[in-house]
């Protein structure tokens, strides 16, 4: 094969190669676009089904945080005996029972949100325990000490509730 024939063969193949490359590029672009569109439609359909369930989980956790807020907890749960330690245990038991009742909600929220809720629960229990270590001898005095501690600073459940509200607002973005 002479150089002239090779040049002529190259001249015939060049348009076919360019056309093939352009077709391949547009086909790949079209395929990616279609995949993205399908993913978007699937996400949109699943969002329509899961959003109400997720909102319900956030609602339940907001209710949990409101119920374990120390000021509402000590008002709602009255002492049953004259023992300070019994009342302390009763308050902690109420928090643990509420938490166990809502454990399944963690699958509908982010890990960060769930960890903040757990931290708020543990911090609330810690506040009750630290108030129980005081020199008080009656459950009514313990209630008063707990309420005084919540007056000084923001309760852990209020901080966690603010985070839950922020995360719910991000669902709309």
Question: Could you characterize what this model shows?
Answer:
Keywords: Membrane, Transmembrane, Transmembrane helix. InterPro entries: DUF7935. It is built from six helices and no strands. It is mainly α and 173 residues long. The chain has a domain at 51-170. The longest helix is centred in the first third of the chain and has 66 residues, at 3-68. The termini are far apart. The model has no long low-confidence stretch (mean pLDDT 89).
What's the average pLDDT? 89
Percent strand equals under 5%
Class inferred from helices and paired strands = mainly alpha
The proportion of residues forming helix, as a percent range, comes to: over 70%
Low-confidence sequence ranges: none
The profile of the biggest β sheet is: none
Using the CA coordinates, give the radius of gyration. 31 Å
| End-to-end gap | 66 Å
Pfam family, one: DUF7935
Transmembrane segments: 6-27
Keywords: Membrane, Transmembrane, Transmembrane helix
Keywords:
transmembrane helix, DUF7935, 173 residues, mainly alpha, transmembrane
Give a topology summary.
Layout: H1 3-68, H2 70-76, H3 84-101, H4 111-132, H5 139-152, H6 156-170
Helix pairs in contact: 1-6, 2-5, 3-4, 3-5, 4-5, 4-6
Write a compact overview of the structure shown.
It holds the Pfam family DUF7935. This protein has a domain at 51-170.
